[in-house]
Amino acid sequence: MRENELKTKECREAQTSLRELQMELMRKSMHVGSLAFAVEGQVKEKTRWCQLLKDLNEKFKALKTEHQILLKESEEYKRCLSDATQMTTAIHQYVSQYANLESEFKDLKEKFSEEAKERKDLYNKLIELKGNIRVFCRCRPLNTEETAEGASMAIDFDSAKDGELIVRGHVSSKKVFKFDSVFNPEEDQEKVFEKTAPFATSVLDGFNVCIFAYGQTGTGKTFTMEGTEGARGVNYRILDELFRVVKDRHDLFQYEITVSALEVYNEQIHDLLLTGSQPSTTTKRLEVRQVAEGVHHVPGLVEARVSNMDEAWDVLQTGSKARVVGSTNANEHSSRSHCIHCVMVKGENLMNGERTNSKLWLIDLAGSERVAKTDAQGERLKEAQNINKSLSALGDVISALATKSQHIPFRNSKLTHLLQDSLSTQFCFLLLMLV
Ligand SMILES: Nc1ncnc2c1ncn2[C@@H]1O[C@H](COP(=O)(O)OP(=O)(O)OP(=O)(O)O)[C@@H](O)[C@H]1O
């Protein structure tokens, strides 16, 4: 019994310790569960950190590459900076050089203006010394008919070297004429122009220049002024020279050039640039009007603006052609009218703003044969009388100008009236006498 009780006690104790062990096991398994949960959390955390580390690694790599690029760029910038510094120094040097040049340029500009004025004054004096009225004589060669008829020259050209021309008369008489220049039959258009060329500069310097061709019909007035395509005359050559000088001076001067072409026939002025302006057709006559003290104008006259030689020549040729086309007999008509080409030049000195206003007149006068000699009647007589009247009026004006007379009779003919302004101040007058 006792043994039974012991066994029961043992059994109870075993039961109690089993219960405790069970409790302990439960506690331990709960602890293991919480540890597993914690471990799972740690694993998750580790994965996240690993990912972060990976990302950071990539970012680091990218930053490293960027750093390399920036390093390169910064070296480039450094180089540029040194270039820029050099450039700035160079610019500073240029600026100071420019300032020096500018002041030198200003000095030169002033000197140039003074020299130009001096040159113009000297030129002015030279013209005065040479005389602002000059007469050249040109003798044409004998034509084939004259040679066939056995004609010979009455002029002794050997003596003409100093401008003195000896004309042998009948028997042993001889007459001596004095000219500023004499051109013998062998001297060509170029030779004649050599002496005329300086007048182009005079016009651009503000002088009025009048060049006349005077002589009897057939002596070569039109040949000398107009010339032919193969032997250009004064008109073409002087315009060419004028535009050459304009081009040469384009940095210092600005010029505005206009041209007109007109004709004086039977003491009436006609515009050759207006179609149908010939005397044979019914057109409005032009008149010279005084618009201010010392300023005369021809209202309605076409003034064509030209900017180069070709344009100017085209306009003047239009005028010359209109003169020929309008007449029934070109030669007859041309010898009975004064053909006038006028080149108007407005200049501005770009250095000092000085302005000039001048005119170049190129005039092929009507044939100078005398009425008594021509045995003219009717319309021809009227034409010849008008020519005589205007040529002698021109002669009177020249002699009044040459003797510096108080009164210059400009109003005695249409031609001299037209030229009044141009023969009143700063002018050069050249008469080409053709024989
Ligand atoms: N220096 C010269 N050399 C060669 N030929 C000339 C010369 N002068 C004139 N001639 C010739 O003489 C002829 C007459 O000349 P031109 O027509 O120029 O005379 P003009 O005086 O103008 O006459 P018009 O009063 O009728 O107009 C033309 O055939 C021209 O070619």
From TrEMBL:
Q: Does the keyword ATP-binding apply?
A: yes
* SMART domains named in the record: KISc
Tell me which Pfam families the record gives.
Kinesin (PF00225)
Q: Name one GO biological process term.
A: microtubule-based movement
Q: Where does ATP bind?
A: G215, Q216, T217, G218, T219, G220, K221, T222
Q: Which residues form a coiled coil?
A: 53-125
A molecular function GO annotation:
ATP binding
Q: Which InterPro entries does the UniProt entry name for this protein?
A: Kinesin-like_fam (IPR027640), Kinesin_motor_CS (IPR019821), Kinesin_motor_dom (IPR001752), Kinesin_motor_dom_sf (IPR036961), P-loop_NTPase (IPR027417)
Q: Which residues form the Kinesin motor domain?
A: 132-435
Q: Does the keyword Cell wall biogenesis/degradation apply?
A: no
Output the Gene Ontology cellular-component terms: microtubule
Which keywords annotate this record? ATP-binding, Coiled coil, Microtubule, Motor protein, Nucleotide-binding
Of which family is this protein a member?
A: Belongs to the TRAFAC class myosin-kinesin ATPase superfamily. Kinesin family. KIN-14 subfamily.
Q: What is this protein called?
A: Kinesin-like protein
Q: Organism source for this protein?
A: Triticum turgidum subsp. durum (Durum wheat)
